[in-house]
Amino acid sequence: MTTELTIVDLTPEDDERVRQAAEILTDQLSVGYPTFDEALAEVREMLAPERICRAAIDDDGNVLGWIGGIPAYSHAWELHPLVVRGDRQYQGIGTALVRDLEERVRERGALTLWLGTDDETDETTASNIDLYPDVLAHAARLQVRPGRRHPVDFYRRQGFVVVGLLPDANGPGRPDIFMAKRLTPVTLPRD
Q1: What is the DSSP string of 43-55?
Q2: Beta-ladder partners of 20
Q3: Tens of pLDDT along 56-105?
Q4: What are the residues facing 179 on neighbouring strands?
């Protein structure tokens, strides 16, 4: 089901939407942002002029979810973060936000969009195991464990692929999963 929404720039002047974005961040990613003040600081950091910060809003102007983009390399941007209000998930809002961000970074010359998605709760086959010495083999066969939900499946549906793992990034057996998506076809030089 697709929700009626509009995607707009989140701006520092819009105190109410910034507050709503911080509340969503704390509600949905409490492991990373356990307090409202930490979430608010993250939202404000994402409002820096060189970054992209977009919000999906409903007809009343309320924030349903938001997404950020950070220039990370000459031709690659990091998607960080993506959050959707709990009562509005599974309605196409996250997909709409990802597509919107892809267009915005493509306009700025990006060839690749990448992200990291932690597994701190044993939801994937890359968690709670020793990934060394063959980290890339684990990355190649990474799956979400049966009966669990992890953002890796959502991002795969958006066209992202697992490109690596950072073992123990969040403590023993708690990796960061790196994913990327090519945004623009490239022609590689021939030998």
Answers
A1: HHHHTSTTSEEEE
A2: none
A3: 999 999 999 999 999 999 999 999 999 999 999 999 999 999 999 999 99
A4: 115, 162
**Amino acid at site 89:** Q
Burial class (CB in 10 A: 0-12, 13-18, 19+), 44: middle
Please state whether beta strands 112-118 and 76-84 pair in parallel, antiparallel, or not at all (unpaired).
Answer: parallel
Sign of the alpha-carbon torsion through 24, 27, 47, 111: negative
> What is the DSSP code string of 5-44?
-EEEE--TT-HHHHHHHHHHHHHH-TTT--SHHHHHHHHH
Q: What are phi and psi of 101, to 5 degrees?
A: -65, -40
CA–CA separation, 68 vs 71, rounded Å? 10
Evaluate if pTM is beyond 0.70: yes
